[in-house]
Amino acid sequence: MITPSQTVGPFFGYALPYDAGSEVVPGWRPDAIRVRGRVLDGAGEPLPDALVEIWQADENGEIARRPGGIARGGHDFAGFGRCGTDADGGYWFSTVKPGAAGDSAPYIAVLVFARGLLKPVFTRLYFPEDEAAHATDPLLGAVPDDRRGTLVAELEGERSYRFDIHLQGERETVFLGF
Predict the structure, then answer these.
(1) Stretch 151-163: mean pLDDT
(2) Regarding the domain delimited by 32-166, which CATH topology (the fold level of the hierarchy) does it fall under?
(3) Which residue, 71, 92, 74, is CA-closest to 82?
(4) pTM score
């Protein structure tokens, strides 16, 4: 017998978020960057009970193969972070800018879990200063020109990026199917 899928949440206040889940690296590291944004519905309203998860390569473009994504010590980098959204739909991460892995431009893989979704949605966050690498990125090459901007974060300041995730509507973020 096959059991049907259930919608996700709202249950994120228990077990999924964890202390320092937003700190992929400590913010005091000299190479730390800050990524922040909001998760918004089709009407542009914030989702206060979503969960954003990131997976990424390190600054050299290598995928972390270390156990213990939750237990990070000192300078450790596990390549994984998880942050529940606040009342304004906001999330943030302290991480490092990933290096390019393979033929791809540097990116962070982003998953969003939210009420009403049967499964998380997947997208990527690319960096605005890597425009030349975007031209040869296989995934970005498959995205229509007028939609690519939904995958590129905005530079807010030195080592600080903003990446708003629109689940539906006119400004809907490009999501990936697997």
Answers:
(1) 97
(2) Protocatechuate 3,4-Dioxygenase, subunit A (2.60.130)
(3) 92
(4) 0.88
